[in-house]
Amino acid sequence: MKSIALTSVALLCAVLIYSTMGFPAWGDSDSPASTHVSDYYIENAVNDTAVPNLVTAVLADYRGYDTLFETTVVLIAGLACFFLLRRFKPRQPQHRLYRHIDTGITLIIEQGGKEPTDSEEFVRIDSRWVPYDLVIQQASCLVIPFLQLFALYVIAHGHHSPGGGFQGGVIFGATIILMAIANDLRSAARRVSERLGALMASAGVLIYAGIGALCILLGGSFLDYSALSKLFAFTPVMARSHGILGVEIGVAVAVSAVMIWIYYNLASAGRHEEGL
Amino acid sequence: MIWQFDIIILTLVIICGIAAISVRDLLGASILFGAYSFMMCLLWAVMGAVDVAFTEASVGAGVSTVFFVAAVFRTSRSSKD
């Protein structure tokens, strides 16, 4: 049985490798992908949209529908993780661990017992608690603001350099995930709660689709940002540039929130109580 | 595109890919998958697709590795094979 599987995989590999000989050479200007619309984009993108980074211009303006539904797919991935994993019923024999900060004594409080929730001296810990490393906690506290600033830079500077909404949003979400790993899930969830994450994920897609719908209201077609020049005092070219920035912000909001949301559901097995 | 770099990176991509499916430790497999993504990111950068390389580095090597580790953390060892 194993030999049949190996032979078929080897045959498939041979066929695939043989078929790559039919591919156009790397960077071939006569290949089918670069003959139809690529010339138009390369020659006119800067004049049409005032965006020097062609990838951003194609992604958010010429192929705006594609990116809109990619963002929707990311939102659907977050929703799917939520519906598959989230469990609202707490685990049944439930007890919580509280650690006295000064002495290191841990209390096990059974269900129904009095919990020192607002106490300054006790802190709640996970059942798989390991002593937190002070170096990791403080180092992550130091780098998180700079990482978030870099994420905002990547989003805002996507017009001129590699980057944009997807990359910047993922980096921004990763900073909150870093906070959840270095401290614990509850301290990250106090900053970005599950409700806020779900709202931001939906709001990001709404921003993107809303900018497209605004273009229809102003007399253009869907996602034709040049129509925005009627509302603001831009030239149509600059309106396209600013429209691209608007949808990139929508993408970034949606992607960062979905990354945080998926992490919460995965790391805590859907209970949002104790995490990685 | 420098062909020496290309050969080295492609070899490492194949080694990481085969190692990721053949190690028995799930945590090791997820880290190897992150290394695979990072090699692919270098390959995109060498070919001049910097935007794709950036996405691969942040999504493939960064966040998806964290997701795999989080999923492995919640996986029990009860399976027989």
How is this structure best described in words?
The complex is a heterodimer of chains A (276) and B (81). Chain A has 276 residues and is mainly α. Chain A has a domain at 48-91 and 130-267. Chain A contains nine helices and three strands. In chain A, strand 1 and strand 2 (106-110) form a beta hairpin. The longest helix of chain A has 32 residues, at 236-267. Chain B has one domain. Helix content of chain B is 80%, strand content 0%. Chain B is built from three helices and no strands. The radius of gyration of chain B is 14 Å and the shape is flat. Chains A and B meet through helix 6 and helix 9 of A and helix 3 of B.
Write the layout of secondary structure elements.
The complex is a heterodimer of chains A (276) and B (81).
Chain A: H1 2-19, H2 38-49, H3 54-62, H4 64-85, E1 95-100, E2 106-110, E3 122-125, H5 134-156, H6 165-182, H7 185-191, H8 194-217, H9 236-267
Antiparallel strand pairs in A: 1-2, 1-3
Helix pairs in contact in A: 2-3, 3-4, 3-9, 4-8, 4-9, 5-6, 6-7, 6-9, 8-9
Chain B: H1 3-22, H2 26-46, H3 50-73
Helix pairs in contact in B: 1-2, 2-3
